Records
---
Amino acid sequence: MSQQEQFSTRLGFILSAAGSAIGLGAIWKFPYVAGQNGGGAFLIIFLLFTVILGLPLLLAEFSIGRTAQKSAVGSFKAIAPGTNWYFIGVLGMIAVFIMLSFYSVIGGWIITYFWKVISGQLSGLTEAEYGILFADTVANPVISIGAQLLFMVITIFVITRGVQNGIEKTNKIMMPALFILFIILVVRSITLDGASAGVSFLFQPDLSKVTSNTILEAMGQSFFTLSVGVTGMITYSAYLSKEQNMPKSALSIVAMNIMVVILAGLVIFPAVFAFGMEPDAGPVLLFNVLPTIFSQMPFGMLFFATFLVVFLFATLTSAFSMLEIIVAVLSKGNPAKRKKWAWIIGLAIFLFGVPSALSFGVLSDISLFGKSIFDLADYTVSNVLMPIGALQISIFVSFKMKKSALYEELKRGSNLKYGVFQAWFFLIRYVVPVLIIVVMVDAISK
C-alpha cells in the first residue's frame, strides 16, 4: 500500500482501532448485561476473558493485516496463495454488511433522541411515558428510516475522505471528545446522593451471584466488545507502518476499551441506584431508564444530551471500520475508486437495513425462526458469523502462518520477548479456539 493509504501516526491508528472496538458492545450492551449478572463479579470475569481471549485475537488480526498490508481478502490471498482461506475475508465482509445494516438503525435512534432532547421533547415524562415514547419512536417508519439514512450518510462521507483525512482525522476528534465527555458524566453520576451503592455494585464482587451463565455471558461479552472476528482489525492494521509497535498498540486498545466499559458502568449504575431503580432493565436501559433518571437531576437533560453524543461518537467510529472493511476490498487500495464504492456499498447497506428499521413497526408481525428481522440480523452476526470468523482466524494464524514469521512480525518496532510470544501463541492455538467454541455452543443453544 502507498504511504497515502497508511495511518500517519501511531496515535491515529490506536484511536481509530479503539474507535472500531468501542461501540454498542461497550456502552450499550455491557451495562445491562452486567446489571443482569451481578455487577462486580461479572466485571472481573469479563476482564479476565478480555485478556485471555480478546487480546490474543486482536494481535492475531494485527499480524495478518500488517504482514500482507492489503485488504482482508487480499491479506489471506497473499499469505496463503492458491487456497480458500481468503473466504475468511469474504465472511467478514458479509458479517459487517449485515451488522452495519442493523447497527445503523440504533445509530438512527441515538440521533433521533438527541434531537428530542435539544428540542425539549424529553422533559418531565414518567418512566412509563418514556417507554411509550421509545416504542412510538422506533415504530414510526419515517423517523426510523430517515434517521438511519442520516447515520449512514455521515459514515459514508467519512470513508470517502480516505484513511488519513477521513477515518484518522475524525477519530482524533471523536475519541478524545468521547473520553472527556464520559469523565464529565462520571463526575455528575458519582456525586449523586446514594450513588455509592452503584459504585459498590460495580466494584465489589458478590461471588454468590456467579453462575455458569454469568461466566458464559462474560466470555461472550469480552469477545464481542473488541469486535474481533469480522476482519476489521486486519483492515486497519494493513494501514500500519512496519515501524509501529503492534503489541503495545494492542494493549493500548484493550486498555481504552476496558476504560470505556468501566466509565459506562460509573455513569449508569450510580445514577440507577441513586434514584432507586433496578440495574437489570435490559436493552431498553439507555432509552427508557436513563431519560427517567436524568430528568430528575438539575440540568439532567443537558447531561443526557452529553451521554447521547458520547454514544453517537462510539457508534460512528465503529461504523467507519465496518464500511471500510468492504470498501478496502472493492477499491483494492485505489483511492480513486474509494468514493464510488463507499457510496454504492453504504447505500446498499442502508437499503438492506430498512426491514430491520421497520421491524418495530409496520413489519413487527413478521417473524423468522422466532425472531424479528432486526433480532435475526443481530443473532446471525453476533452468534454465528463473528464466532466462526474468529475461530477461523485463530486457526489460520496458529497453523497456517509460520511461527517464526509471526514472531518476527510481532517483534517489528517492539522489544517483544520470545517467552511472551510463546504464551500468546499457546493461547491463540489451544485456548482461544476452545473458548470460542464454548461461546458458540452456548449462544446457539439459547
---
Amino acid sequence: MASFDRIPAQAKVQPTQFTVAIPDEKLDEMRQLLKLAKVAPETFEASQGPETYGVTREWLLNAKSELEKYDWKQTEQHINSFPNFKHSIKHGSDTLDIHFAALFSQKADAIPVTFLHGWPGSFMEFLPILDKLRTKYTADTLPYHVIVPSHPGYAFSSTVPLEREYGITHTADIFHQLMLDLGFANGYVVQGGDIGSRVARIMGKRYPDIVKGVHLNFCFMLEPEQCKGMELNQREQDGLVRWNAFRERGSAYAFEHSSRPSTIGFVLQASPLSLLAWVGEKFLTWVDKPLPLSTILDDIALYWLTETIAKSLYAYRTDYAFKQIGGHGNPDYKLPNFGYSSFPKELANIPKAWVETSGNLTFYKEHDQGGHFAALEQPELLLQDFTEYVHQVWEL
C-alpha cells in the first residue's frame, strides 16, 4: 500500500522530509521557568471571567499546573505521525525554508488543496482534518493532495527577513511558489481562516488562472457603503453584536501587536506563563464551546519551544488596518470565485450581503455551532464545506 509521503511525480522538487525533535533541555527550561513564575495576586478583574477582563487567576493557576506536567513528547509523536517536510523557496533576494505537513495522494486526478492557518494558531489547527482524511482514505484513494504550511516566522518555518519590510503579500507569493514547486501549476484550491484568509485572498486575486477557488471561514471587514440600512435577520444581528463587542473590548491585543510588536514580543518570549495568559485568553473567548485544555497547551508549547511568538506578529504590523492590502473590505482584492462558511461564534460573523461585496460568492453555508477556530472546533463541518466547494469549482 502506498504511503501519504510519496511526492507526486510531476513535482519540480523533492522537499526534505522533516521530523520534529525538540531537545529535552528546552522542555526542562520551560518547566523550570513555569515553576519559578509568580502568578499575580487576586484582583477584582481577575475573578470576573475571560469575556469581561481577561483570564481568571483560577484558570491561570490550573493551566500553569497542567503545563508544568505537560507531555510534549506525546504531541511531538502525533505531529510526526503525519508526513512533514521542509522546502527552500527563493523570494527576491531571500531564501526561506518553509515547513509543511501533507497528505499526498497517488490518484492521477487528485485535486491539490492547501489550508492556511492564522494567529495564534498554527499548522496543528488542521491536524484533525488530516486525521479524518487519512482515516477515511488510503494514499491510493485520497481525492486530494493536502498541503498545510507554517507561515514564515511560525513553528518550523524560517523567520522573515530582518533587514527589510515583510508582509502577507510576500507570504502569498511564497505559498503560491510552494504549490508550483510541488507540481500543481495546473491549479489548486486554497482555504484560510484568520490571517490565513487574507493570504488566501491575495493568492486568489494575484493568481486567478492557477488558484481555481478560495474558501474562507473569516471575512473581517467594516460595513460596506452599499449595505448601510439593509434589513438583517436575527442571526446577522447577533453576529454584529459579537463583532462590535470584539472591536470595543476584545481587540486591544491586535493594536498592541500592530503598534508595539517589539515590546509585546519580548514580554511574551520572556515567560511561558505570560504566553499562556496572552494566548490562552484567545482560545477561551473566541470559541463557541470550550476547547480541551490539552489543545490550548499544545499551541502554547509549540510557540514557546520554537521561540516564534515574537516572530509571528509581523502580519499585524503590516496588515491590520481594515482596508489595507489583502483586507476583505479592500475593493482591489475582490475574488473572482470564492466560498464562505459562516460559524455563529466567529469574531466577525458578518452578514452574507457584506461577504458578497468582496467578490463572486459561489458557495455559502451557515452553521449553528462553531467559532473562530473552526478547524479545531468543527473539523467535520469545515471539511464537508471545503470539499463540496472544491468539487464545485474544480468541475467548472
---
Amino acid sequence: MISIKALTESPGLTSIPPTYTFTRSPVDEPVSDDPEDSIPIVDFSLLTSGTPDQQSKTIDQLGKACQDWGFFMVINHGVPESLMKAMADACGEFFNLTEEEKREYGGKHVLDSIRCGTSFNTSVDKVLFWRDFLKIFVHPQFHSPSKPAAFREISLEYCKRTRELSKELLKGISMSLGLGDTYIENALNLESGLQILIANLYPPCPEPELAMGMPPHSDHGLLTLLIQNGISGLQVQHQSKWVNVNYIPNAFIVNVGDHMEIMSNGKYKSVVHRVFVNEKATRISIVTPFGPSLETVVSPAPELVHRETNAPAYTGMKYKDYLHLQQSSQLDGKACLDHVRILPA
C-alpha cells in the first residue's frame, strides 16, 4: 500500500483516488463558529504546586472539563518546549525516510510494538483516510525505530515526561471522582500501564472537501495527550455540533478515553472527534494514549456503583482484548464501547 506522502508527491496529482472519497452524511452536525465553544484550559502548575485552595479549584476544573467536554488544554505543564519541537521534528524526519526504509516497520499485527502504515486499518477500511502513521509501544517496554538516528533518544525523554504529566493528571481526575489520588493508578496497574506514541502525518490534499484525515471516533485508554505542528485540523463533537480545536502553542490537548468512561461508570465520557485535511500545509500530530496494563480487566469502580441509583453501565473486559477489538475493526464513533455497555433492562 502506497503511503499518502508518496501519493501526494506523484507528479500532476490534482484529484484524489476514489478509494479516499469519504461520503459525509447530509445531516452531518454543523460546525460551530461561536468563540464561546472552546475547550477548557487547565493550568497544570496550579495542580502540582499551587496553594491548597488553588489545587482544590484545579481538581474541580479537571472534573468539570472531563464531564462537560471530555477534552481540555493543559498549559504550564513543565515539558520543555524544545523537547516538544524536537519530537515533532524527529517524527517529520521519520516520514521523510524512503518508502523502503519505512516498510521495515510495516508490522503484521495490530498489537506489534512498532507499526508504520497508512489510513487506519487498510484490511477493513472501506474508505481510506488521508493519513500516514507510526505507532510505537513505549511503556512498560520501550521500543523505537533505529532511524532517524536521534529518534530513540528524543522519544525516550519525551515519553518519560508525558508519562509523568499524565500520571499527575490522573491523580487529579481520580480525586475529582472522589476516589483519592492514587485510586486509578493502583486499580488499573498504571506502573505497567500501556503507553503508545503515535505520529500522524496529514499531507496537503488536492480535494480536502472529499477526504478525511481520521473519521469520527473515540480513543481507547484513560487519557490521550496530543501536540501538533501548529496546523489545525482537529474537531470535537460537543452538544450536537463540531467544534474546531484552536491550538495554543506549547500546550497539550488532552482527551478522555473509553476506559475512563468505563472506570467512572459513565460519569466522564469519551468524546467523538475527527481530523480534517487541507490543500496547503502538512499537519503532523503526536498522540500519546495512556491506558491500564494490557492484562487488567477494566470495569466500573465499585465506589461509583450504587445498585439502586447508579447500576453498573459496563461489563469488565481485559484491556488487551478491547484494544485488539478496536484496532482490528472499522473506526465508527464509539461503536467499540457497545461491546461492554450494559443496556437498561
